[in-house]
Write a structure and sequence with these properties.
By secondary structure, the protein is mainly alpha-helical. It has a domain of 64 residues: lambda repressor-like DNA-binding domains (434 Repressor (Amino-terminal Domain)), CATH 1.10.260. 63% of the residues lie in helices and 0% in strands. It is built from six helices and no strands. The longest helix has 15 residues. It is globular.
Length: 95
C-alpha cells in the first residue's frame, strides 16, 4: 500500500477545494450549509435573532454558521437539521 506524504496530500486537498472550473467543487461545504440555513431562515420570515432563539444558540454563533465560518461536526449538522425540521443532507447538498 502506498502512503502519500503530508505535503503532497495537503497540496491535493488545496487544489480540490480551490478549483473554480465548471463541474468542480467551488464552495466548501460549510459555505453551502450556511447558505441553506440562511435560506431556511428567510423562508420562515425569521431574523437571525429569532432563529437563534429557536435553535438555542447565540445570534453571533448563527451568523457565523450562515457566513460559512463555523466548521460544524457531522453530529452538529445532524442536530441542526433536526431542530430545523429538515434532513441533514438537505443542509449540505449543493444547489
Amino acid at each position: 500500500m502506498t502512503r502519500l506524504n503530508a505535503t503532497r496530500s495537503d497540496n491535493f486537498l488545496e487544489v480540490i477545494t480551490n478549483r473554480h472550473e465548471a463541474g468542480s467543487v467551488t464552495d466548501p461545504l460549510k459555505k453551502v450549509l450556511g447558505a441553506q440555513v440562511r435560506d431556511l431562515r428567510l423562508a420562515r420570515h425569521l431574523s437571525q435573532e429569532g432563529l437563534a432563539e429557536e435553535l438555542g444558540v447565540s445570534t453571533r454563533y448563527l451568523a457565523g454558521i450562515e457566513r460559512g465560518e463555523r466548521n460544524l461536526t457531522l453530529d452538529s449538522v445532524d442536530a441542526l437539521a433536526e431542530q430545523l425540521g429538515v434532513e441533514a443532507r438537505s443542509l449540505i447538498g449543493r444547489r
